[in-house]
Design brief:
CATH class of one domain: Alpha Beta
Largest sheet: 3 strands, parallel
Number of strands: 6
CATH architecture of one domain: Ribosomal Protein L15, Chain: K, domain 2
Structural class: alpha/beta
Number of helices: 4
Order of helices and strands: HEHEHEEEHE
Helix content: 10-25%
CATH topology of one domain: Ribosomal Protein L15, Chain: K, domain 2
Low-confidence stretches: none
Strand order of the largest sheet: 1-3-5
Strand content: 5-15%
Mean pLDDT: 92
Length: 144
């Protein structure tokens, strides 16, 4: 087999559509556009989303954002807020009592925003990798 002997398989290549060349071509008179109407005319196409003058759906629907329902029960707490608490042990109840989280919060994650000096013990609260390193470096403990 040589490159100059390669050919496409029979039927793979179609001849170009020649419109308006008489009834024998199958594309004479209306040239495959059917009868009348906007799409049969020259320049007769409309923009995407156009609904014939009716108010399009992207303008009928209200322009509002999205609020995740998970965000109503989850909270992020900064490490500096946790370090400001007096107790050595940090739990969900202690965070609620200190008004750091509200009563409807079920999941809390501690995020690192600074280093801490005092040792704390975190129980039942998830922490980020950086916050975990900062707590352990201060002599604290993280209990999952």
């Amino acid at each position: 087999m040589r490159l100059n002997t390669l050919r496409s398989t029979p039927g793979a290549k179609h001849s170009k559509k020649r419109v308006g060349r008489g009834p024998g071509s199958g594309l004479g008179k209306t040239c495959g556009r059917g009868q009348k109407g906007q799409k049969a005319r020259s320049g007769g196409y409309h923009k995407v989303g156009f609904e014939g003058g009716q108010m399009p759906i992207q303008r009928r629907l209200p322009k509002v954002g999205f609020t995740s329902r998970k965000s109503l029960s989850r909270a992020e707490v900064r490490l500096s807020e946790v370090a400001a608490l007096d107790g050595g042990e940090i739990t969900m109840e202690i965070l609620r009592a200190a008004n750091i989280i509200t009563a409807n919060i079920k999941n809390v994650k501690i995020m690192k925003n600074s280093n801490i000096e005092n040792a704390i013990i975190v129980k039942g609260i998830s922490v980020t990798k950086g916050a975990r390193e900062a707590i352990l470096a201060a002599g604290g403990k993280v209990e999952d």
